[in-house]
Amino acid sequence: MTLAFDIVLSGLILGGMYALTAMGLTLQYGVARIMNLSYGEFLVAAAFFAYWMFSSLAVSPLLGLIVILPLAFVANWAIYQIVLMPLVRRSKNRDMLEVDSILATFGLLFVIQGVMLVVFGGQYYSYSYLSIPLTLFGTTVAANRLLALVFALVIGLVVYLALKHTRTGTAIRAVAVNPVSAQLSAIDVRAAAAFAYALGGALVAAGGVLVSMFLTFNAAMGVAFTMKALIVVIMGGVGNMMGALVAGLLLGVAETAVARLVDPGLTLAVTFALFLVVLLVRPTGLFGRPTS
Questions:
Q1: In 3D, which of 59, 62, 84, 58 has the Cα closest to residue 201?
Q2: Cα–Cα dist 134/186, whole Å
Q3: CA geometry: angle 275, 277, 283, nearest 5 deg
Q4: Which pLDDT tens digit goes with each residue over 100-131?
Q5: Is it the case that residue 192 has pLDDT exceeding 60?
Q6: Burial bucket for residue 221 (CB in 10 Å: 0-12, 13-18, 19+)
Q7: What gap in Å lies between CA 166 and CA 172, rounded to an integer?
Q8: Which CATH number is 2-281 given?
Q9: Share of the chain above pLDDT 70, in %
């Protein structure tokens, strides 16, 4: 019972981080149709920002969220307007925009990564924040990991409810389903896409801050986070926030179970195995809708 609870709890903590970061990519790809290959770099940049605030200014990373999230939102909104909007204007359809955005964000990946390497170097960083062991039902877990899980779930739930029950959220979901029909309903598609892209950037920044509380990180780790987020988005169903949440938690528990019961070296294998199984059974993802 203790081992099972330990696996589930550790898996939910890892899955919560996956889910939160994937929800941001769901907004950027599912709504704005931007395949953002530099997505993970923003997570790492937020982790470095949290590290700097904690080590230099003695600011708690949880309090740092109040500063980092608005900055990430503004930065991503500016990137969309300056870098990606020309691509949006010249693209004849969403498929063409997706291809163009892959090339643009691939270059952006190296720009951001290069800046971080110049400033912080290639070494790994970490800091000690609330690394206090707590015992729950016979399982020992660090307090910072539990806090990260709680904040990830709260942030994810708030965003999900806002998208479901607000006028702006309804407009964003309409654009994700059918931008042409949304435009006919007097929805400003480009404004909604820009807002969704910026909100996605804020969510990945939140994930970066929370991850920095208990993981070591360096400037070259962004690609790994991008890959995991993309897997979760496709597993859950492109554009579906609840799908990203469920798929992230499922992937986290599966990876933890294999690492504890079989071999830690097989976590990447189980990730892709689960990914393939879901696509074979549900080609559009767990919560994706079949296209007509």
A1: 84
A2: 52
A3: 85
A4: 888 899 999 999 999 999 999 889 998 888 87
A5: yes
A6: buried
A7: 10
A8: 1.10.3470
A9: 98
The encoded tokens of residue 163 equal 């998208």
The set of residues, in sequence order, having a beta carbon less than 8 Å from that of 242 and lying 6+ positions away, is 160, 236, 287
Write the pLDDT tens digit of every residue in 79-98. Answer: 999 988 988 888 877 778 88
pTM recorded for the entire structure: 0.90
**Do the Cβ atoms of 197 and 34 come closer than 8 Å?**
yes
Give every CB contact of residue 201 below 8 A, 6+ residues apart in sequence: 24, 28, 42, 72, 73, 75, 76, 77, 79
pLDDT at 261: 83
Centre a 10 Å sphere on the Cβ of residue 139 and count the other Cβ atoms it contains: 17
Q: For the residues 249-275, what does the mean pLDDT come to?
A: 85
Residues 207 and 144: their CA atoms lie apart, in Å, by 14
Measure the CA–CA gap between 108 and 82, rounded to whole angstroms. Answer: 12
